[in-house]
Amino acid sequence: MEGALTARDRVGVQDLVLLEDYQSETAFLNNIKKRFKEKLIYTYIGSVLVSVNPYQQLGFYTPYHMEKYQGVNFYEMPPHVYAIADNTYRSMRNESSNQCILISGESGSGKTEASKYILQYLSVCSASNEQVEYIKSRLLQSNPVLEAFGNAKTHRNDNSSRFGKYMDIEFDYRGAPVGGHILNYLLERSRVVHQASGERNFHIFYQLLEGADDVLLSRLMLTKSPDKYAYTNQVSSPKYNSIAILYDNDLKYTIDGKCAKVSSICDRRDFVAVQKALKVLDFSPKNIDELFCIVASVLHLGNVTFTQNEDGHAVVERQHEIQKIANLLGCQYEQLLQALTHRTIEANKEKMQSPLTVEQALYARDALSKAIYGRMFDWLVSNLNRSLTNKDLMRKNVIGLLDIYGFEIFKSNSFEQFCINFCNEKLQQLFIELTLKQEQEEYRAEGIEWEPVEYFNNKIICDLVEERHQGIIDILDEECLRPGDASDNTFLTKMEETVGKHPHFITHALGNSKLRKTIGYEEFRLVHYAGEVTYSVKGFLDKNNDLLYRDLKVAMSESKHDIIKQAFPVTELARLKRPETVGSQFRTSLNRLMDILMSKEPSYVRCIKPNDAKMSGKHFSIVSYNTYRFDETLVRHQVKYLGLMENLRVRRAGFAYRRTHEIFLNRLVLIQSVQSYTHVYTDVTRYKSLCPSTWPHYDGSPRKGVDVLCKYLDYKEGEYRLGKTKVFIRFPRTLFATEDAFQIRKHELATIIQSVFRGWRQKKMFMKMRDAVTLLSAQWKKVLAIRLREKRKKATVNIRKFILGFMTRLQPRCAENTEFLDYVRYSYLMRVKNHLPTSVLDKSFEHAPAALEETGALLQKLNMKNLTLKYVKSVTPQRKAAMEEKVLASAIFREKKKGYDESVGNPFQEKPRVEQLKPKMLAMIDAGEQTLYSCSVTKYDRHGYHPRPRTLILTSTATYLFDAKDGKLKQKIPHQELTGISTSSLGDNVFVLHAPSDKKEKGDAIVQSTFVIETITKLASIAKKDKEVKIVENSSIVHDMAGGKHGRIDYVVGNDVSVTKSKTGLVVVAPAR
Ligand SMILES: Nc1ncnc2c1ncn2[C@@H]1O[C@H](COP(=O)(O)OP(=O)(O)O)[C@@H](O)[C@H]1O
Ligand SMILES: [Mg+2]
């Protein structure tokens, strides 16, 4: 709602205290009318809530709204019944005080609805646990039960409460509801037997007829239609006309009295709810059954009729009806039958049965119906109370909710209206007592100037009604009790005699001629604070007496059923004193109620109905706005009798807020100690924090402190006053400003407290850590020092032992050197292990200490053996062959020919050089011969010494020389024909293959090979001619030439290698070895 409300708050003021023209009733009305048009049904007068019934569901009673109103400043949010509920609840908790909320207003103005919203709010917003939920549900469930039995459809309200209800909700120290208590007042019992046209009996009759299943109905001997029962099917002319239902003719009421069905009510559904609620409230199945039996019995009673016998005495027409009733009520049939038609009278101490006339019998029947129903209702309430009682003895605070009928002014007013209006007078008294009078008195006590407010104190009217011996109630009682022919008219006369001079009492006889026209002979008029009401005295005596013949009481008290038995206790019969009259009873219970309310802090909800036609805006189109929707005459009347203008006047003259100086400075919050039930005050929040002079402490008196504070806050002259003990603030807005400032300040304070606390906590933690660190490091240092000392000690011992061992190392093993020697041995072995040679060529080995020289040598040998073995194992046959060739080369050339040393590192070609082998060449080689080696060589002719490029191929049987270009075989020297191989010791690469020359064979071949060592070694190996290799040193090689001639190759030592032709042959220049 608040969004919508605040947005629309331009429409009128939300606190009537802020009205410019607060004296004007019209301005007042206009304001609530403007707001009502905008669906702003709530308006404040200070802390009093004025509520206008919207007659339609406005969506501002949701859990969301309940949450919004929780714990907020009363004036912060738009007016709402939740704000009242919340304020009351907070006050109860914070100040640990008892509270009450008085809801008043005309019938249909929304009191019961408001009380339900308040109850819901209190239930939702209070603390909770499983047990509390249990009691909450009971509190809430008590409503449908009470409404079923105590509410009825009237002209003004489809769900009108026909009894006054005061409910105490008890809260524990945590603010959780823990129990409740209900007081009921003056149930309108006449409704049981008679309803005005268009009205209904109590809901439960219709609910039972509509909602009960066939089994229950047949057990109760009922049929489903209300029109079968006289009490629910009344046909009578409109008798009860209120000034407010002038419009009945315009509306569609069914004025034939048959209004069992009401569109806004679903009896069947409500009956289910009632049954459920009764179960929740722990009513036993037996009791529930008895309740329905009683309701049914009343319906049957209504159908009992009488005829007159010859003697003029009443006789029951259909006796089986009585049988049913006796059955349902658990009483004796004959006894009941007799009691309905006779009464026992005592004459001269003799009891006699006196028959009743038909009229008397009908009276007795109705009296019984009313009594049964009324007493059942009382029983119901007391049983509800049993279910709601909290037996815990701990201290509890209560919030009371009073929902009681408002002023009733009909065209014809009777005893009921008299009682109701008296009740409202009393409530007005209370209001005056608590607000006006107390307020003024408080100002006086506080020494504050007060501009007296003119208000009407209605005590004079209350006295007129209730004063002992002088008041109307006592006069009525007297007439009821006195012997002789007392009647309603004698009562009127008696009143005229006793209170005739009272300014608020007028009768036809007492009035002037003008007044006489408006008052009948059997009427009297009371000038109530809310207006004049003319009462008809007819029926006053009867209704006050509320006579139920003793015989009927006896029949009831002997019932077998619990409820009836309890409702008509035997003790009542034994009492000799006449039972208290209804008027006296009511006065007593009202005074008790006043005491209850006086002991509490009251809050007010004043309900107003905007029209008498239960109309919301939805019905707008069919009726004119002014007449129906917001009926100004009607509302003006209510504003008047609710005393709202007076209320406003007092508020404006007075101060909106007052608190003791201490509380204002410190805003003490009351906390209840759980253990001791004593009160402990804790200054949780402080306004004094708003002023540097009063914060954090003010040494002077609280009054002076408040003075300083108010001045500092710049309160204007007229806005506040300082009383002796209290500070008074005139306008709520001044307080809001202070509260707002305080809320902001609170955050600042919280921040400061937080930061100081955090700093303190941090520092504390730091100190703790620092101490810990110091301790730890000291301990650690100690540990380290100890370890170092131990280490050093050990080291000293070791060094000493070592030195001694060293000194005696050469001696035989003894105690002194054992360790040293072991160490030396170990370290040597470790060194050997870590530095073992990995190659057979590596001859190095760890040097052994003297004592282990032999071991060292053995180990070295062993290692070498090992390596060799490993090496040998790793050698392949090819490699072996290659190495054998190398060995052969060594045998041939080592230290004999220059160039050998360089060749050692280069491995020999293992296979023929395939690129040199042309197919032509291979073709020339004999089959079965294996080509084992090849290389490119240069061959020099024996004649002319021309160099020729040749390919040399070695097979297993011969040496072949092919023309390197065309692959033609130039020479073949079988191995067995090779007689020698000659080469020089110089660094050249020329060698001669010696072979016999005949005609066929070419003889010696002069060959030059890049791989001279390799080629010669291969040839020597393959041809097994190693012994035939000749190395000439610094001389010449002679070779054969054709025709037995010889050529010569001369070797000359020189730096560069060259092969040149000379006259005698070849000259080879090459470096010497
Ligand atoms: N705040 C409200 N919102 C909506 N409808 C309401 C409100 N208050 C009252 N009414 C309507 O008015 C009817 C009469 O209200 P009720 O509380 O029973 O009146 P009272 O107890 O004063 O006789 C309710 O049944 C309901 O329809
Ligand atoms: Mg009501």
End-to-end C-alpha gap: 123 Å
CATH topology of the domain at 880-1032: PH-domain like
Task: Label the CATH architecture of the domain at 880-1032.
Answer: Roll
Tell me, what is the CATH class of the domain at 880-1032? Mainly Beta
**Average pLDDT taken over every residue:** 86
Overall geometry: elongated
Structural category: alpha+beta
Question: Portion of residues in helices?
Answer: 40-55%
User: Nearest-angstrom radius of gyration?
Assistant: 66 Å
Secondary structure: number of strands: 33
**Are any ligands bound, and if so which?**
adenosine-5'-diphosphate, magnesium ion
Q: How many helical elements?
A: 36
CATH superfamily of the domain at 880-1032: Pleckstrin-homology domain (PH domain)/Phosphotyrosine-binding domain (PTB)
Fraction of residues in β-strands = 15-25%
The profile of the biggest β sheet is: 8 strands, mixed
Question: Quick summary of this structure?
Answer:
InterPro entries: IQ_motif_EF-hand-BS, Kinesin_motor_dom_sf, Myosin_head_motor_dom-like, Myosin_TH1, MYSc_Myo1, P-loop_NTPase. This protein is α+β, with helices and mostly antiparallel strands and 1073 residues long.
Q: What's the arrangement of secondary structure elements?
A:
Layout: H1 2-8, H2 25-37, E1 42-45, E2 48-52, H3 63-68, H4 81-95, E3 99-105, H5 111-125, H6 130-150, E4 151-152, E5 160-161, E6 164-171, E7 177-185, H7 190-193, H8 203-211, H9 214-219, H10 267-280, H11 285-302, E8 306-308, E9 314-316, H12 319-329, H13 333-341, E10 342-347, E11 350-355, H14 358-388, E12 397-403, H15 415-446, H16 459-466, H17 472-481, H18 488-499, E13 505-507, H19 513-516, E14 523-528, E15 531-536, H20 540-545, H21 550-557, H22 562-567, H23 570-574, H24 582-598, E16 601-608, H25 625-629, H26 632-641, H27 644-653, E17 657-660, H28 661-666, E18 669-672, E19 679-682, H29 702-712, E20 720-722, E21 726-729, H30 732-807, H31 815-834, H32 853-874, H33 877-893, H34 900-904, H35 919-924, E22 931-940, E23 947-955, E24 958-963, E25 969-974, E26 980-984, E27 990-994, E28 1005-1009, H36 1012-1022, E29 1029-1032, E30 1036-1040, E31 1046-1053, E32 1058-1061, E33 1065-1070
Parallel strand pairs: 2-16, 3-12, 3-16, 26-29, 31-33
Antiparallel strand pairs: 1-2, 4-5, 6-7, 6-12, 8-9, 10-11, 13-14, 14-15, 17-21, 18-19, 20-21, 22-23, 22-28, 23-24, 24-25, 26-27, 27-28, 30-31, 32-33
Helix pairs in contact: 4-5, 5-6, 6-8, 6-10, 6-14, 8-10, 11-12, 11-14, 13-21, 15-16, 15-24, 17-18, 30-31, 33-36
Bound molecules: adenosine-5'-diphosphate and magnesium ion (MG).
Residues 111-112, 160-161, 403 line the site of magnesium ion.
